[in-house]
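> call design_seq(struct)
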């Protein structure tokens, strides 16, 4: 027996206050949508139609210039195993054209090699070449020679404008990218399906239109073009189909001050129909529009709810030490899907490492000539991403994989379902429905805030939702011969013979099938009418991967490499604390230089006050498969080999990982700058308590060092 929406929730919904999209979807007209094999990609006001079928693609950001080229293939396959179908990537212009007129596509700048690898891995590509990228990169990726010209010849080289010099340089850069990627565009049989012009730009439209035309002239005739940020009022009657706006949503921001949770980030945990939740006053993001929805001012049109910066982590800045927790990311994704997002685009999905520059940092810094709002680590761009700087998975890699696999298997149905804001329940929730089928999305988590236990009445089931949990439950779901009226478990995947659900911690997993309520034993197949239902326990579900119509389980990552099924685990090995010998004591006399009420990154005379440890590891461990995990406390840590800084870290309570191959059998020096009590920077509660309780009045210690072995092996 099917139940309607109202009886399923067991609550009263004020229909007059509900939001829904009822207009007929309108197609957007961009470039060539068909490839030589007859495959097509179209976009309309609901989302993507791929080969005639609606899909919810999953985009994940990885910057090829920040990941060793030798690692590209394995890391891309791990992204794919996590559910990513589109790889989005910035191109940083300043290291692509370090000298005016001289392009460098060698080594980690080999954009062609990276995109070809994406294609071989079965991944599509969304290219984000700028010209301004941001990405916490110095000058936002603009070449220094171009920045210098903007000061010496401002009228001719006004940055991010249609001034002749800037546009001429941009055209040369785009033409070089077009030549380098010839044959790799979708219409040529390649994986590049979309291109973003500039980044986080409020316009004017004349500038964005000019960039799009330059890209097309350079050969980028593609199924769609995008811009990041919410849409502004369209000027001069321009078509709304010029660029797709892709939204962003972060749970915290390195660019903020000393608050625990700036008010606008709370929106990440509510079912609010927002396109971008960053501070509208923020000058770094260049967001000047006050519009916060995907609504388009052109009559009868509405942008699809697509995202390219759904924050799946956050980097710490020198003045703000963000420590992301697993529930933060999961809850944010649940709320975005609940309000109707039809493409999650995770930023960052894979962390990286900035190239070493002996002449100065390539990271955004407050002493630079342009984009100088924040000090970022000189090397590390881990971003606390699902796959970290070295490719080690965080817990949310597994939580997001459960969601992404669901989108792959049920995305065609979900994309047709409208968002309805629920207004009468005591717990944050929303509904996406199409007729008598749909999903209830629930979030009982907010970053650094206790929510307590809140009640949900779902199809007559009174459910006490534990603090910190977020999930979605289906109703009116069909699987083969089964009519699943509702389930109090989250759907994961379906195979040719079985349907899998993931139980939620603290909630009894039940299903109602044809009016009969059943509670199968967790992790045991349940047979009904020739079909199989499996409800996985919360812990078991985090080990589940769907591979070749089967569900496999692993404590690590399972990914497919052509016909091989591979397993990757990260295993703690020998403790080498004894090999770290303190060779220099710390000096705690520090007076930070301040600007706009926040401390600047320390000058050399301050860095010289760091304590130092020498670190030696066996030569046979100086390989690509070994890493050094350093748990420390202090202000910042820097790891040097000879005159090269191989790693650095702003302390936020998390472990720092170092590639053992960077040590190359040499003695490394770990410098840790002491962090005195009362030092003016933001720490989260746990780290602030450690500093407050520091017996010496400061923190400066290495608590543990151990080797971590990345083990890859074929399991089929």
């Amino acid at each position: 027996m099917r139940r309607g929406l109202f009886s399923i929730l067991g609550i009263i919904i004020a229909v007059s206050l509900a939001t829904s999209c009822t207009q007929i979807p309108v197609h957007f007209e961009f470039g060539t949508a068909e490839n030589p094999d007859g495959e097509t990609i179209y976009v309309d006001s609901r989302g993507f139609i791929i080969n005639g079928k609606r899909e919810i693609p999953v985009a994940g950001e990885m910057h090829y210039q920040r990941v060793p080229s030798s690692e590209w293939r394995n890391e891309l396959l791990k992204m794919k195993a996590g559910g990513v179908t589109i790889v989005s990537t910035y191109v940083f212009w300043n290291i692509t054209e370090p000298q005016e007129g001289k392009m460098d596509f060698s080594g980690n700048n080999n954009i062609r090699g990276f995109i070809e690898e994406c294609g071989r891995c079965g991944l599509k590509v969304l290219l984000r070449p700028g010209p301004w990228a941001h990405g916490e990169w110095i000058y936002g990726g603009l070449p220094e020679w171009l920045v210098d010209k903007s000061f010496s010849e401002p009228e001719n080289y006004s940055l991010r404008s249609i001034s002749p010099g800037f546009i001429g340089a941009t055209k040369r850069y785009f033409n070089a990218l077009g030549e380098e990627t010839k044959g790799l565009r979708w219409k040529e049989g390649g994986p590049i399906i979309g291109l973003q012009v500039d980044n986080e730009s409020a316009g004017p439209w004349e500038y964005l239109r000019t960039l799009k035309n330059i890209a097309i002239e350079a050969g980028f005739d593609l199924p769609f073009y995008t811009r990041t940020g919410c849409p502004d009022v369209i000027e001069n009657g321009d078509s709304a189909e010029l660029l797709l706006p892709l939204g962003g949503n972060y749970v915290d921001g390195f660019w903020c001050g000393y608050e625990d949770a700036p008010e606008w980030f709370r929106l990440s945990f509510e079912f609010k129909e927002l396109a971008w939740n960053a501070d509208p006053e923020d000058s770094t993001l260049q967001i000047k529009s006050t519009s916060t929805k995907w609504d388009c001012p052109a009559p009868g049109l509405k942008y699809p709810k697509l995202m390219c910066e759904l924050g799946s982590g956050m980097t710490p800045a020198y003045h703000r030490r963000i420590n992301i927790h697993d529930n933060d990311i999961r809850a944010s994704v649940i709320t975005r899907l609940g309000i109707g997002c039809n493409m999650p685009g995770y930023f960052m999905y894979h962390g990286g490492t900035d190239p070493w520059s002996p002449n100065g940092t390539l990271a955004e810094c407050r002493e630079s000539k342009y984009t100088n709002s924040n000090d970022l680590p000189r090397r590390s761009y881990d971003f606390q991403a699902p796959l970290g700087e070295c490719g080690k998975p965080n817990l949310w890699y597994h939580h997001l994989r459960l969601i992404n696999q669901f989108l792959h298997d049920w995305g065609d149905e979900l994309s047709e379902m409208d968002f309805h804001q629920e207004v009468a329940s005591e717990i944050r929730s929303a509904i996406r429905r199409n007729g008598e089928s749909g999903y209830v999305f629930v979030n009982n988590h907010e970053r650094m805030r206790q929510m307590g236990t809140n009640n949900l009445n779902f199809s007559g089931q009174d459910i006490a939702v534990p603090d910190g949990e977020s999930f979605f439950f289906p109703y009116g779901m069909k699987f083969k011969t089964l009519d699943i009226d509702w389930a109090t478990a989250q759907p994961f995947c379906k195979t040719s013979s079985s349907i899998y659900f993931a139980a939620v911690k603290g909630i009894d997993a039940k299903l109602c099938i044809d009016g009969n309520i059943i509670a199968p034993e967790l992790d045991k197949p349940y047979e009904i009418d020739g079909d199989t239902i499996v409800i996985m326990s919360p812990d078991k579900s985090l080990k589940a991967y769907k591979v070749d119509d089967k569900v496999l389980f692993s404590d690590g990552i399972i990914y497919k490499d052509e016909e091989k099924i591979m397993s990757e685990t990260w295993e703690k090995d020998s403790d080498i604390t004894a090999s770290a010998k303190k060779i220099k004591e710390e000096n705690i006399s520090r007076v930070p230089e301040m600007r706009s009420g926040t401390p600047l990154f320390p000058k050399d005379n301050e860095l010289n006050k760091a304590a130092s440890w020498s670190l030696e590891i066996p030569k046979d461990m100086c390989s690509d498969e070994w890493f050094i995990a350093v748990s420390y406390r202090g202000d910042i840590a820097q790891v040097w080999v000879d005159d090269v800084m191989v790693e650095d870290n702003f302390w936020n309570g998390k472990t720092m990982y170092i590639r053992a191959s960077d040590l190359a059998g040499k003695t490394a020096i770990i410098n840790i700058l002491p962090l005195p009590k009362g030092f003016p920077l933001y720490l989260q509660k746990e780290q602030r308590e450690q500093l407050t309780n520091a017996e010496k009045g400061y923190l400066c210690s290495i608590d543990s060092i151990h080797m971590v072995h990345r083990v890859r092996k074929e399991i089929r």
